[in-house]
Amino acid sequence: MTELPHATVATIVEQDGRYLLVKEKRDNRIVFNQPAGHIECGESILQAAVRETLEETRWLVEPTGFAGLSVYHAPNGISYVRTTIIARPLQEDPLARLDDDIIAPVWLTHGEILALKDQLRSPVVLKVIEDHRRGVAYPLDLISEQR
Q1: Domain 6-137 falls in which CATH fold?
Q2: Which residue, of 33, 42, 115, 129, has the fewest CB within 10 Å?
């Protein structure tokens, strides 16, 4: 039986030339990823982006743009349909509890991210950062959600 694709959201947060990533344990490896996770039933994409970013980094963010939609066919046989949201950091909540698999949130420059290329959770991590650096951004109203 083939598993259905997972609907996920990730957030690009950049401040002063540094990108907010998470250092996490995944499949017995230490990897780096944007704050990301599954969209929960009844939750909007933007709500999921804000929630996942807070849960994985302790940062409250404000969505400002749509970076795009990616499909990643992971080596574990799972396909991910990933919506990436651009957000600006508002404030850190030092009392917020991080998700269990998160080791730490980290702010990294583009050069530092390139040096970690083999430790990125997927090729999508670097792709969306490269797109962001080239100015790829779309209005949030491209995202349509119906209830």
Answers
A1: Nucleoside Triphosphate Pyrophosphohydrolase (3.90.79)
A2: 42
**pLDDT 10s digits, 45-92:** 999 999 999 999 999 999 999 999 999 999 888 899 999 999 999 999
Domain boundaries, the chain: 6-137
For 128, the enclosing helix (H) or strand (E) is helix 123-133
Q: Max Cα separation, the chain?
A: 46
Reported pTM: 0.94
pLDDT at 1 > cutoff 70: no
Of residues 37, 14, 33, 13, the one with CA closest to residue 24: 33
Report residue 2's pLDDT band, with 50, 70 and 90 as the boundaries: low
107-113 — which CB contacts under 8 Å span 24+ positions?
A: 107/15, 107/18, 107/19, 107/20, 107/21, 108/18, 108/19, 108/21, 108/32, 109/17, 109/18, 109/19, 110/17, 110/19, 113/19, 113/21, 113/32
Q: Which of 40, 41, 47 is nearest to 62 (CA)?
A: 47
CA–CA separation, 10 and 45 (whole Å): 9
